[in-house]
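Figure 2 data, in text form.
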Amino acid sequence: MEAIYVLEAGTYLRKEGMSLKVVKGSNIVDEIPVNGLKRLTLMGYTMLSGAVLDFLVQNRVETVFLTPTGRFRARLAVDEHRHVNLRRAQYLMLSNPNFSLKTAKIIVRGKIQNMARFLTMRSRQYQIDQLRIQALRLKSMARFVQETNDLDRLRGIEGHASRLYYEVFPLLIRNSLFEFQGRNKRPPRDPVNAMLSFVYTMLTNEVLSAINACGLDPYLGSLHEVAYGRPSLACDLVEEYRCFLGDRFVLALVNRKAVSPGDFVCRRSVPDNFVDEEDMKEKRPVEMKPSICKAFIASYEEMMNRKVVYSKRNITTSYRMLIHYQVRSFAEYLQNPKVEYAPFAWEK
C-alpha cells in the first residue's frame, strides 16, 4: 500500500529486510512492506529506530506524527525545495494586504458556496424547507463577501456562515441513534463532532502534503493568521473540502449505520482543561474504539482513492490527486495573479 497508518499506542518501529516491524513490548503486532510506501502516519506515541528513520529520509517517505487525539504534531521534512521563485512570489503576494484580502475572499466565498450547494441538494432529497432556506441565506452571504474590505470582518462572515450551516446540520443526520447539538472541538464532546474533527485533521494533512510537494510555504496563508506552528496556508486551502469531502463522509457513515454509538467510549464527567495531550486522551469526553478507528481510516482511504471528474483539466482523477491539482492551481495564481484561483466547485 502507498499509505500506511500505525494506530497502536506505545509501539516501536524497526526495519528488517524489506519490511517495517511494528513492535509492542516483545511482540511484533504488525508488519509493513516497504516496497511502494509513500505515506506513513503515526498516531499516538510511536518510536522509530535509526534504521527506520534513515529509510524514511532516503526514500522520501512522507511521515506525519499525530497525537493520540488526532491532532497534528509534526512532519518528517526532507529539504528538497528548489522552488525559490515560487516561494518568493508567495511571500511577496501574500504580504500585500490587498492581494491577501482578495485571496481570503476567494477562499471564503468558495467555502460558503459549497455549503449552500450541499444544503440545496439535501433539501431536495429530504424535502426539508429549512435546509433550502438556510442555503439561500448562505448564497446571500457568499455574494456579500465581495463587498467586504476588511479581513477581520471577512473572518466574521466566514464564522457566521459556518454557524448557520451547523444550525441545520442535525437535519442532515438520518439516524436517530446520533445527535448533533452544535459544532464543538478541543475536545469534541460527542461522536459526530469527534468524527468531524478527525476527518478535518486528515484532510488538512492531505492539503499540507500537496503544499509541500508543490514547494509552497505551508505557514503563510491569507485567511488564517500567521501563528507559530500553524500551517496557515493548509488551513486556508482545506476550507473548500470540509463540506464536500469531510461532512459527506461522516454523514454517510452515520446515515448508512456503518457506525453506532457503541463504537465510541463516552465519559460523563469531563474537566474544562487538560495538562497535556496525554491527559486529554485519558479524560476527553468521547473517543473512537480502536476497531472503529481502523475501519474509519480504511473508509477514508477508499474515499480518497475514489474517482471524480476534474473539469479544469478535463480529466478523471482521485480525490487525493484533485487536492494536488488544486494546490498547483493556487501556486500558478500566485505567480500569475491575472489567472484567478478558483476553489473546487461542487457541481453534483
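Caption note: The mean pLDDT is 86.
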